[in-house]
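User: Some background: our group keeps a shared notebook of sequences we're curious about, and every so often someone picks one and asks for a predicted structure to add to the entry. Today it's my turn. The entry only has the sequence so far, pasted here. Could you supply the structure so I can complete it?
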Amino acid sequence: MKILAVMPSYRQPDFESKVGGGEISNRMLLEGLASLGHKVKVLTWNSGNKGSGVYNGVSVIDLGKKNASILRHVGVLLLFSSKAKEIAKKFSPDVILCCSEGLAPALKIKTVIDAPLGTFVRAFENFVNVRSFYEYGRYLLKRSIIGGYGVKDLGRSDFLLPNSEFMDRFCKSEVPFSKSTFIIYPPLDFYKMNFPEIKSVKNISMVGTSEKKGICVAEYLAERFPDITFRVLGSGKAELEFRKKIENLKFLGWIDVKDEFENKSDAVIVPSLWQEPFGRVSIEALACGCPVFVSDIGGLPETVFQQKPLIIKTGDFDSWRNTIGDFVSNPNTYIEYAKCAASNLQKFSVRVQVKKLDTAIRAVVESKSV
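Assistant: Of course. Here's the predicted structure to add to the notebook entry:
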């Protein structure tokens, strides 16, 4: 089967800067489809200066410009759709896949290619009604350059690929017209799941420095547990300038998450204050053999398989303090809950998720031919 994917960014594992979890997931899934024998072609305008080529079985065509100025980048984006249509006509795909910001050019490709279009929905960027004023402004600017990818545009897809049960329900309630949906979780490609016994809790980690990620919860906990070092991964210099100076709250920037969870963390907290569509950090922590505590919001409870002792009321400082306090006193009790959650992680494996995506694509293509 010929699969055409429209991905604004498609960077390889050796890219030396931060790459979002959604982009990583998309790359792993497309490489998995290629490993099954499908002919996979990706159109992108940002390969991280890698350029066009075949990477892990996926043919990548980078229509961007290496080290270009902002004006040249804008020019590339304005011409992207027309170039993408030309390539698509020659390739003649059986199905088209895209992520949010690739939706507009993917829809234009559909005007010249009679193939079903599936869109990965991994965030709220398609849903204008849940944006802040700032996010809405950014959306309008991007829309003027690359085209629309709001909820009405999403409704023009033939099928949707949400990344959690929570996001599946959200899509079904918000996207106009009836769409087929197939849940494709962010795939995991590693498992340690060797939970060591904890004699005393010394380090607790979290990823994210923003308010919506719950950095205020980490500050609160650091002040209540001065003997524990709270290690925060992620950037956000402007935000960090206004953070409290708490001695045992360490901001580490972007460092290797797997090394952090496997070798330095006694636990990971995900105290998000907003509806995370899923929460890759949680399953990565469990895969590294590290217990994790999450807010009871969005898709986060799915990441710990509804293990109630690991789920804490969103924004409830007292509940977070009480649970972390109990964990400090009885760490190995919580390790048992984490082990129970981790025993289900195979559900998120690359093999399982690629197979689910392959089955979904085949079903859509076959239904179209009937």
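Suggested note for the entry: The domain at 203-347 is CATH 3.40.50.2000 (Rossmann fold). The longest strand covers residues 39-44.
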